[in-house]
Amino acid sequence: MGDIEDVFINPEEFGEPATYVYEDGTEIALNGIFDNDFISVDPGSGAPVQGRNPRFVVPTAKLPKEPTVNDHVIVRGINYRVIESQPDGTGLTDLFFQHNSHKDLPIA
Is residue 43's pLDDT more than 90? Predict the structure, then answer.
C-alpha cells in the first residue's frame, strides 16, 4: 500500500485529512481522497433526478473497525454520515456519504 499512501492519500499530494467518528464516539484521524461528483439520472420519466454523490476513499487498514451507517466523517469542515462502505479488494475502501444536517457533532 506504500505507493498509494505516499502519493495519492498523502495530504501534500491528493489526499485530505479527515476525522472518522464511530457510533460509539471513538474518533480517528485519517487521510483519504474526497470526491463529490454531480450525478444526473433519468429514471425513464423524462424528469432527471440530480444531486451529489460524496465519497471518501481510505486505506482499509487505517479503519480499526468495520464502518457502519451510524458513523460520521468530518472532511472539509462538513459532517457527513456514512451510508455505505465498499472495500475494493485492493486495500482501499470507498465510504459513501450523506450530508449530515444535524448539528449534534462538533465540526473539527
Answer: no
Give the CATH number of domain 2-37+54-99. Answer: 2.40.10.10
Q: Which of 49, 53, 51 is CA-nearest to residue 34?
A: 53
Of 81, 74, 80, 84, residue with least CA distance to 108: 74
d(CA 58, CA 67): 12
Length of the chain as a residue count: 108
What is the model's pTM? 0.76
**Helices (H), ranges, the chain:** 2-3
